[in-house]
Design goal:
The chain is of the alpha+beta class and about 625 residues long. The protein is built from 20 helices and 9 strands.
Amino acid sequence: MGLPWPTCASGFCLGLVSILSLILLASSSNYSTSSSQPEDRVSRRSFQLKMDQAILMIQDESHEKIAVYWRSDLCYQCLYQTLSATDLGESASKVAVVDTRRPITLRVNDTSGNQVLCQIHYNFREFGNYSLWIKSNHSGTKDVNCEIIINYNPGFTNLPIIVAFFTYVGIFSILALGSFLLRLNTVQNWICTRINPVETDRLINSELGSPHRADPSIQDAHLVAWNTASQRLRSLDTFRGLALIIMVFVNYGGGGYWFFKHQSWNGLTIADLVFPWFVFIMGTSIHLSLNSMLRKGNSKWKLFGKVLWRSVQLFLIGLFVINPNYCRDPLSWNEIRIMGVLQRLSLTYLVVSVLELLCAKPVPDSLPENRTCFLLQDVVIFWPQWLIVLVLEAAWLCLTLLLPVPGCPTGYLGPGGIGDYGKFANCTGGAAAYIDKLVLGEEHVYQHPSSNVIYKTSVPYDPEGILGTINSIVIAFLGLQAGKILMFYKNQHKQVLVRFFTWSVVMGVISAILTKCSTNEGFIPVNKNMWSISYVTTLSCFAFFLLLIIYGLVDVKHYWTGFPFFYPGMNSILVYVGHEVFENYFPFKWKMQNSQSHAQHLTQNLVATSIWVLIAYVLYKKRIFWKI
């Protein structure tokens, strides 16, 4: 009799994540972000630093009246900002706090601001202690020399990430090896013999019969059960779970690291990848699920009713359950944020599902494996859908680039604030922001966009606004195309892999053209806040390639079961809503000894994320799934 060793091993593996918290907490005691050398005149203790900051002591020996300005490399075409400094109580000596996320440019001007005395570009390290020495080159002249001196360079701030990575890799490697060994009959028999050899022999002989006289009908039944279970593509749930778990982790804070937070404007961070991937795989699932229900004889009107009801539920959950603005007052209807993540998902799901119901024809369960297909057959036969999507994208381009916006240049794609040298301070998002304010009202738009961190914007802007939803529909439709490939070339793994790779290359080429392979200088830069078309093509390129890898490993070669991402992928709505609702409750959050420690933040965020994986695993084993 087969024993459920892999199941036990998986549960044990998920339980071991608590070890990570102990390891990271131990590392946090050794990894000090607050230590300064005793001889430093200014330490972190006397001048409180936050994450992504360092101390800069300004030592002026130039005998000139100066002002120091700074600009981050993250801030494209930005105005220089005054570096506010505190007097140390000594002549010509001040201390300031500088940003460490990216290199910054320091500029020393005379007090009139007309003459640049010196300029230096430097990459400060987090929690470091530095001095900026400003000296005159020659007596009686205004020639000034600037130099950065390191008073104290802290330890490697990414050390907790490395510790966490190898801890998880070690746990999963041990469990993978254990699971493999426990699948071997010799190991199972040896364990059973060691546990109770007499009882084992009795069970084999009296209850199960001789292992050499297995009932063929029982073997056939197990084979049928295995084939039925494997009909669901585990790679899709694994992909969805991967995107979801990264989303949960970055929503919890990502250990306080800047690259686990959303980009201020153009460009990408890790946090900017996951939501489009989730939308992409939602499109893939739409095609497979609707096609399956059509084959079972469900009418399109009945399916439309289910789609509409599910969309309404998603929108209401996003509006009233996890809305970031709903708790300002007991009934803050005048300030409630109307759009959001689930609201965008609901609208995207509704449009793409209706598009599929209008044009879809059920594909038979079994298709000839040796049929010949020309290259674009899976695209051409769905040309009405492509035509509608192209019209939607044309509408996005026209509105974004041609709609007049009061007080702003037509086709403006910038962040406003101090960007573009401060010329368009209140134009954040251009037409996208204008449409949201016109349709929804300024009070119902997200009030704290990521652009205000670097670009110092003062106007609200919603990254899940109305105009960006059009491109959300586009990326979901590209995911729908991935579902068509899986369905149309069923049992032809090579054809599926080739087409996934081809689509990845095509999307990558389009992105290269739109962006000119640059962050800010392209025709349409990659921008998560606006969900630009280049953002859609870039993330679709990544999604097709990632799905190719996961599909090949999980469903073709069976090298990987999708563990542990498969389980949250099977219960995605529950995990997403749950992590938002219980975000501030123990054990997902607790009081930290040092709120500016990456190690403690990372420990808390990884433990919270791992708990949701464990919850999803337990619910999967209990066959509990929250479907709406």
